[in-house]
Design a protein that fits this description.
Acetyltransferase (GNAT) family protein; globular; Acyl_CoA_acyltransferase; Aminopeptidase; 25% strand; alpha+beta
Amino acid sequence: MNQTQTGPPLVRRAGEPDADELARMLTGLTDLSRYFRFQTAIGTPPRAALLLRMLCPTGAAFVATRAETIVGHAMWAWAPGAETAELAAVIAEDEQRRGLGVRMLSVAAADAIAAGARYFLFVVSAANERSIRMVRRRWPDATVERDGTLLSFVAPARLPDEPEERADVVDQQVGRLEGGEVPAAGELRPVDDPVPAF
């Protein structure tokens, strides 16, 4: 492992200037990782319209970087239904299974809660066993509906790993986001389960 990978990636809010780096990260994903995240072909390089939706959603987007190279993306966007935010993340191949996906989802979840989300939606391929296990473990009270090859989980809005998140914990995590760049390792406690690629 080289020295640039010894520390945790930094998580910050994303924006349009991140388009080229995000395209590079998405292009480096395996076909399976891209399918699990998007459930469709996204092109190589990804289309500009897709990148814009990922970086400027109706909610908020975040990227994780190592030496200014994007290694992860998470976002939330308002979904149909009262006060429901859809959460999604995608992590570079070399960074998967290290807890970064759950930490980034925690950042997006805290931001969505602060914006008024009361429910989370996760749309997951029925073949994506790692993501299904992650949702069931982190949000055990989620309900699920199947639509063809997709599973839609709806859960009460709370941070992963916490059965009932106290308001002061949410305020603390959201407050750290307002300061700009945040060490990803400081967002959540260590995790021991696989990181989702959705």
